[in-house]
Structure formats: C-alpha cells, structure tokens
Amino acid sequence: MSLRVLTLNLRQDLDRWTERLPLVVEALAGAAANVVALQEVALPISQDRLVATMLNDAGLPYAVHTAPKWGDQNAEAVSLLTLAPARDHAVIALPGAGGRVAQRVVVATAGGDVAVVNTHLHHEPYDDESVRLPQAEAILAWLEDDGLLDRCVVVGDLNASPGSPTVRTLQGRLTSLLPDGTPTFPTPLAAGDFSPVQIDHVMVASGLAGSARLVADRGHPDDASLWPSDHLGVCADIQ
User: Fold this and answer.
1) Would you state the pLDDT for residue 60?
2) Is the pTM of this model over 0.90?
3) Residues 6+ apart with CB under 8 A from 55
4) How far is C-alpha 219 from the chain's CA centre?
5) Among 1, 25, 126, 157, which is most buried by a count of CB atoms within 10 Å?
6) Domain coordinates in residue numbering, the chain
7) Is 223 helix (H, G, I), strand (E, B) or coil?
8) Residue 16 Cα to chain centre, angstroms
C-alpha cells in the first residue's frame, strides 16, 4: 500500500489570491497526492472547486468533499480532494468556539481501507489549549467509536506546536511524520512579526508508517513576497 496525502491552508481568498492561485495549483499538481486536505477554504468563491477544476485541466481529476464550519462561521470550510477511490464522507462539529469541524473519507488502497481526517483547530486562545485540546480529543473519540483509529491519517492546521498538550495528546495515539520542530508558518506572504512555528501536521495510526516533506515552499521567481499561502504545505507518503 502507498498513499500520498497533502495538507495546505489556503489563506481563504485573501492576500493576492488571484496571483497566488497558479502557485497553489502548480504545487498541488507537482505532488499529485491521492488525497489533498485544504483548510481556510473560501465558500463564496467555491475555492476548493476552483482549485480542483484547474487540477482536472492538468490531468488530475479530483473529487471534491466540502465541509463548512458550523454556526455563523460558515463562509469558510475545510475540504478534501480525492484522486483515490473514496467513500463515506463524514463530518463532525468540534466543541468550543470558532465553528470548527473535522471531516473524513475512507480511502481504498491495495493494503486495505484508510480513514483520512482533515481539520483546522481553533487559533484562539493563543496562550492555552482550552479549546484546541477538547477539539483534538473529540477527533480521537470519533475515530475510536467508529473503529477507525487503527487505520487513520489525521492532517491539517492544528494551530498547535509540538510539545503542546494538543499535539502531545494526538501523539499519544498517532505518530507524526513531519519531524517535530519543522516550521510550517509563516511564509513571506504573511504580514506581521511572526516567529516560525510548526502548526501543520500529518499523523498516522501506529500500524502505518511513512515520511513527510514540505511543499508549496517556493515563492514566485519574480516576486519574493508572493507565495502560494502564508502556510507551507506538508506532503506525506504513507505505507
């Protein structure tokens, strides 16, 4: 079995989106992942379907599975794009603020079915894990209750770094494929004085193995401030 999964926060349609779009498509097409997990998807422009249409034109016919936030946050979504045969798209509302959700599909591989989960945990409060930790615990419980925790991949923007209670809790049941301490935010697209942090993750069940690398990690050759997103993407090959 070999399954390639990629996660990327799109930064909605902000910060020169129309100029960023070709860079996003180039990065995703270059990886040709079986499953692409997107966060901060702008629903008013059907951002995930726009990206998928351009990937289809490049010979990569992705199916689109959109999961809007709940409550008054529903102009934004997370989304899974799938090349591999996928079924059973399911979504849960995560507890706490921010209207956050987790979504999953079950992907058929030569080695058996694998559940791929995509999420974007809340960024507030910045200084503690009082919202993010219960959200992570809800995802683990969801997978365990449905008998999928032993055959799962959990990816996304967790807004939590290695060593935080949120990441430690997930790593109690799952294995991170991107080495801890590999910064995924910010890129030169981000405005503000940010310290480099690793908040984008790919984690797998103990029965799975693999390696991960950064993608969407190059800016425009003629504009040092124009990057695909304010986040780097993470791409993992899973066996």
Assistant:
1) 98
2) yes
3) 25, 28, 29, 61, 62, 81
4) 20
5) 157
6) 3-238
7) strand
8) 21
